[in-house]
Specification:
This protein is mostly helical and about 230 residues long. The chain folds into two domains: about 60 residues; about 150 residues, no CATH class. It has nine helices and no strands. The relative contact order is 0.13.
Length: about 230
């Protein structure tokens, strides 16, 4: 137990160290920010280390095992609709709680001076992710080629990029990039791995992965459709 905690703490320190080192180097060579600001940065860095340490522990000891268990138990209920519905619900719930998505929604609201409400951006992004996670669950069950789904989805993204109002296009691509964060990633992957582990003829590598990229496309398409609807 203690060796695992130590290993995770070392991992977090190695992750954060380059950022802290770069800022300290800039502080003493080029920037030379006021002492109060630099001390505030150091204090914030300590909080980040503590927060990431606790977050990753929660993912390792809570989210991943539970996600795999849920994914493995769902097929035993004998309902495809239930599996798809759970996938939709988990995709939506994790996206609305995703810190990166919350930041993006708040920034859009602020920059647009409230013209594009943050709650709408949050809900639309979550719906896009949830819909495509549900489709990804159905893909695993029916053994549909991920290559074909990705090709069709990316063609749709490219087509929408030409007709969506210009100001919504970059927002849509950013929405796709921020959905794969610290909450959505472990939940979706663990459920998919659990699901593939109990289905005959399925590979946890080829069928359990690819869902996050597919779900991100859902967020892009959803925000573009929102842009068309608003305009």
């Amino acid at each position: 137990m203690w060796s695992e905690l130590k290993r995770r703490l070392v991992d977090v320190l190695q992750t954060v160290a380059p950022l802290i080192g770069a800022v300290c180097l800039l502080q003493f060579t080029l920037v030379q920010a006021p002492a109060a600001v630099f001390v505030q940065f150091l204090a914030g860095s300590v909080l980040i280390i503590a927060g990431m340490f606790l977050l990753f522990l929660g993912v390792d000891y809570g989210i991943l095992p539970m996600g795999r268990f849920v994914g493995a138990e769902l097929p035993r209920k004998g309902s495809v609709a239930l599996i798809v519905l759970v996938g939709f619900a988990m995709g939506f719930a994790t996206t609305v709680a995703e810190p990166d998505v919350l930041v993006l929604a708040a920034q859009v609201d602020e920059i647009s001076r409230g013209d594009i409400n943050r709650l709408i951006v949050l809900a639309v992004t979550a719906l896009g992710v949830a819909t495509f996670v549900a489709l990804a669950m159905a893909r695993i069950i029916y053994d549909i080629s991920i290559r074909n789904l990705l090709t069709a989805s990316l063609i749709a993204v490219l087509a929408l990029s030409y007709v969506t109002p210009e100001k919504f296009v970059p927002m849509a691509y950013d929405a796709g990039s921020v959905t794969t964060g610290v909450l959505t990633t472990p939940v979706v992957i663990s459920i998919a791995i659990g699901l593939t582990s109990v289905l005959a003829g399925r590979s946890t590598v080829s069928d359990g992965f690819g869902l996050l990229g597919f779900a991100s496309i859902g967020a892009i398409i959803a925000v573009m459709i929102m842009g068309l609807a608003i305009q």
